[in-house]
Design a protein that fits this description.
alpha+beta, NE0471 N-terminal domain-like, binds zinc ion
Amino acid sequence: MPIPIDPRKKPADVKIHVKTGTGVDITWADGHSSHYDFSYLREECPCATCNDERGKKEAFATAAAPGSSPFPALPMFKPKPRAQSASVVGNYAVSISFTDGHSTGIYSYDHLRTICPCAECAKAFRSAPF
Ligand SMILES: [Zn+2]
Ligand SMILES: [Zn+2]
């Protein structure tokens, strides 16, 4: 995988706070800094299984049109996943093992910058019309 030349997707500093559980902090080559909670990263896990699950959830949400379900949609209680361990993969990604047993997610810096939770990045990277 080629290293992205875009300075917005090149990390200058990466801190993964596994022990304190506060998440991941990345400062990018363009000076922007991003903070990710582990639970957010778990939700945005880019692995095939999670992609699949997200697809199914969307399909389910579409199928369950108003009036078609006798049960009101109750949010299920799930403990927030935290990181069990994390490591840097080469110079292009970080890999995180979560407390819910999931560990196949490899977060490339390219992906991480794209999912930066701030409004600025949402506009810059996620404003593509679907
Ligand atoms: Zn996953
Ligand atoms: Zn951002």
